[in-house]
Amino acid sequence: MNGGMALWGGFSSFFSIWQVCILQISPFFIAFIAGSYLATPDQKTDRGIFRWFIPSFIAYGASFTVLYSLLIASGLTISRPLIGNIGSLRIASGILILLVGLYILLVNRMPFLSKMHRPLLLSVLSLIIGATFAIIYSPCITPMLSDIMGLASQRNTANEGWYLAFFYGLGISIALCMTSLALILLFRGRGIILRNAGLIKNVCGIILLALAFMNMTGLMRHYKAFVLGFVL
Length: 232
Prior knowledge:
The protein has one domain (about 5-230). It has 13 helices and no strands. It has helices at about 5-15, 20, 25-40, 45-70, 80-85, 85-105, 110-115, 120-135, 145-150, 160-190, 190-195, 195-215, 220-230. α6 runs antiparallel to α8 (about 120-135), α6 (about 85-105) packs antiparallel against α12 and α9 packs across α10 (about 160-190). The radius of gyration is 18 Å and the shape is globular.
């Protein structure tokens, strides 16, 4: 197995039956992107869309991929403190997601937040979302990921396992960002979406608040069991 195969494995898993497992994060990331888009003043132009969201996708992909791969590579010394404190990290992630959800809800209601709403801030929020989603995500073990985890759990092959896990996570990130970009491009041409932008943005913020609540209370495992129940 090489990096290209791992990249394709992560990317293709998004469009397969394994998407059921990725539902732990995919609808919430889409809610974050949709809410951000509907709060964005340059939402009607292609140039505006790409100026705001391409850096955000890069930021999300970078933070998710790095942290996801470190959590998979349990054989690495640097990964052990992360894995050993995963419970506390998930609670902290819930708090950060709560703040992002409140931002989506309040950005057009509070003048100082509206002034702060810029591509750079959106990229910072995407960086946070990527890191928190990597922490809260409990991946289903696909055949390829099983092989990667086997390598990543052994000290003598941990570096190779981390390398493959990095590209596997990057594939998931690329698929999710491509889907989100397609969605906001679809939004741009729909008058009914723009006429109800405030309502939809608020729903997106509430969805993120629900994710934050599930992580802070430990209910996320029940959500995962619920979505897996559709195929098991």
